[in-house]
Design brief:
By secondary structure, the chain is mainly beta. It has 2 helices and 8 strands. The radius of gyration is 14 Å and the shape is globular.
Length: about 130
Amino acid sequence: MRFAGYAAIFDRPDRGGDVVRPGAFAASLKRGWAVPLLWQHAPGRPIGRIDYLEEDRRGLRVIGRLSDGAAGREAAALLKEGTVRGLSFGYRVREATGEGPRELKAVELVEVSLVTFPMQPKARVHALEEAERP
């Protein structure tokens, strides 16, 4: 199963009040390293791979493909039934202003996760595509 959505939405406060600004992911995306796709931010629960990851005017757009392993199948089933539709990202702050809430101007992207409760309520999966069988 493939999915598309946004792991971050620019210029909108998250549940903690932090705001991610456009360009915050630029350095991470430029380095070209593979960013893992995880389940609920758990480092030991990879669920597939990211096929596309870019900033656009709205935020950090993600297109991912779930694996055929047990964790990927579980995530696919929950996505399909609508139980889980949140996206989130793990990061290290490189540049921010404020102390709480913060304005995040540059972050090192560590991972993207499918989550039950995204920190940014509008960071969601908005499209699903069933994988074709050979």
